[in-house]
Amino acid sequence: MTPQTRVAPEEVRTVTCVGAGVIGGGWVAYFLARGYRVVAWDPAEDAESRLRHLVEAAWPALTDLGLAEGASLDRLSVEQDLAAACAQADFVQESAPEDLELKRKLLADIDAATPEHVVISSSTSGYGMTEMQVRCAHPERTVVGHPFNPPYLIPLVEVVGGEATSAEVVDWTADFFRHAGKSVIRMEREVPGFVANRLQEALWREALHMVEAGEATVEEIDLSITDGPGLRWALQGPMLTFHLAGGQGGMAHMLDHFGPSLLSPWTRLEAPELTPKLRDAVVDGCEREAAGRSIDELVAERDRGVIAILRALGRA
């Protein structure tokens, strides 16, 4: 591969999105809103109709945020052939289901069909690129670009390469996502689950434990975050939040004063067995919390809320 033939991050014009589910479709909507031409491919028979429904549903929120010059729903095309979709790409974003064997085969197929100078990024939420790139003829141009749902609204993308990934490719990918308007964590090493997923997974597991033990309901757990620390986390992360909790002494005073509480058995940090009883308790709790609202209604409410926060932060 000759990196000199790769277009600069700001010169990308066509993005190929492989996989058109919730994450892949979210990427399609985002790239269209940022003014790119998008070529999509998905093997499902109804993929195109589902994709266009998702993009059209997201478009009002994206319009409210502000569309880039040239942004248009008309710039989306859906190919029936993977090779035809990849051949047109300046950049590829793969968003297939979380199945390692599927990822390995699909990435190898994408690698074989995509011009050698084009970077191939994966939306995987847990697998490392090292274990996914093993069948690629050009693994040096494969990299993780892990988004958060919905990708068309949540700014963060975590970028990290595998053992065979070129450092230049990781840098290029981070630069591309930044140019496309994303907030980027460029990780220096592979960590299972990356950064944000590990943090939110710890909270999720403790929440399941609390439901299972009858210590809190689904509604109470959600309220404890939305009307509690979640409001602070939207402005400052947990580290800076605790830094401020130390008063004038900052984090040093915080750790000196409250450090011993880390030994308190406040959390379990091990996932409980997902028994039918626990599963039903979580499902029933979510239905109670939804209070008859449909998925589309809940998505619209979420989108409006995220937009309001982004505007309050001056990021929109």
Question: How is this structure best described in words?
Answer:
By secondary structure, this protein is of the alpha/beta class. The protein has two domains: 3-186, NAD(P)-binding Rossmann-like Domain (Rossmann fold, 3-Layer(aba) Sandwich), CATH 3.40.50; 196-312, N-(1-d-carboxylethyl)-l-norvaline Dehydrogenase, domain 2. Helices cover 47% and strands 11% of the residues. It is built from 13 helices and eight strands. The chain has an eight-stranded mixed β-sheet, sandwiched between helices. Helix 1 (22-33) links the parallel strand 1 (14-18) and strand 2 (37-41).
CATH topology category name of the largest domain? Rossmann fold
Number of helices: 13
CATH class of the largest domain: Alpha Beta
Over the alpha carbons, how many angstroms does the gyration radius reach?
Answer: 21 Å
Strand content: 5-15%
Structural class: alpha/beta
Count of discrete domains: 2
- CATH superfamily placement of the largest domain: NAD(P)-binding Rossmann-like Domain
Widest sheet, order of strands: 3-2-1-4-5-6-7-8
Low-pLDDT runs of 5+ residues are: none
Approximate helicity band: 40-55%
Order of helices and strands: EHEHEHEHEHEEHEHHHHHHH
Choose one word for the global shape. globular
Organism: Nocardioides agariphilus
Family: Belongs to the 3-hydroxyacyl-CoA dehydrogenase family.
GO molecular function, one term: oxidoreductase activity, acting on the CH-OH group of donors, NAD or NADP as acceptor
Domain 3-hydroxyacyl-CoA dehydrogenase NAD binding: 14-189
